[in-house]
Amino acid sequence: MGSGYLISPLMLIINTLFDLYILLVLLRFLLQMLRADFYNPVSQFIVRLTTPPLHLLRRFIPSIGGQDTASVVLCLLLIYAKFIVMRLLSVPVAHIGGMMAPIGSVSLAGLLVISIADLIALVLTVFLIAIIIQVIISWVSPGHYNPVIGLVNRIADLVLKPIRKFIPPLGGIDLTPLFASLLLVVAKMLIVPPIIYLGSF
After folding, report:
1. How far apart are CA 120 and CA 195, in angstroms?
2. What secondary structure, in 3-state letters, does the chain show?
């Protein structure tokens, strides 16, 4: 067994650690944008884990339009760092939005562009998962509330509310989640590949 024997489990650990923390930072940005309840235990957990690096970044990166720009920058830096580590381990490609991104052969500037594609794919995936969870909860335990459900609903409603203005319930059935999920999947298919292609040069 060569050195390649250890690469797969090592990459699993690296991807898991990076992706979980990137997700926490992204959730913090979304919850701040949505003005979610930060007394919620889940929100407080996210804030505690993400405050140290954000506190440092906010010294150099001001908010833009009232939004926490430092959170977005931190997400990009973490994704970029993950790809750099993958390159150091001689991993040639990364899976982004159903595509293979050639992270091992592009320039450092191209790697930044691919990092942007990965962040966009993650944002769309978060919305999609939030909608799916909301639908499952509405079937399994309608009317039930806990801190996680409250945050999931806030994130999902950011996509669902605008669509509900154009697609009313049909026969008492709300088809908005179906159309919203379809739009998110199509958006990922249309937006992410051209950015990866741009970063590949």
Report:
1. 10
2. CCCHHHHHHHHHHHHHHHHHHHHHHHHHHHHHHCCCCCCCHHHHHHHHHHHHHHHHHCCCCCCECCECHHHHHHHHHHHHHHHHHHHHCCCCCEEECCEEECCCCCCHHHHHHHHHHHHHHHHHHHHHHHHHHHHHHHHHCCCCCCHHHHHHHHHHHHHHHHHHCCCCCECCECCHHHHHHHHHHHHHHHHHHHHHHHHCC
The values of phi and psi at residue 99, to 5°, are -115, 160
Distance CA 136, CA 152 (A): 12
Please state the domain extents for the chain. Answer: 4-199
What are the Cα distances from residue 136, in Å, to 129, 132, 140? 11, 6, 6
Nearest to 72 by CA among 19, 129, 116, 109: 116
Structure token pair of residue 187: 């958006």
Token readout for 166 is 């154009």
At 99-124, the pLDDT tens digits run 899 998 999 999 999 999 999 999 99
Q: What is the pLDDT of residues 145-180, one digit of tens each?
A: 677 888 888 899 999 999 888 887 776 677 899 999
Single out the residue of 95, 49, 56 nearest to residue 73, CA to CA.
56
| Residue 11 to residue 95: CA distance in whole angstroms | 12
Predicted local confidence at residue 80, as pLDDT: 97
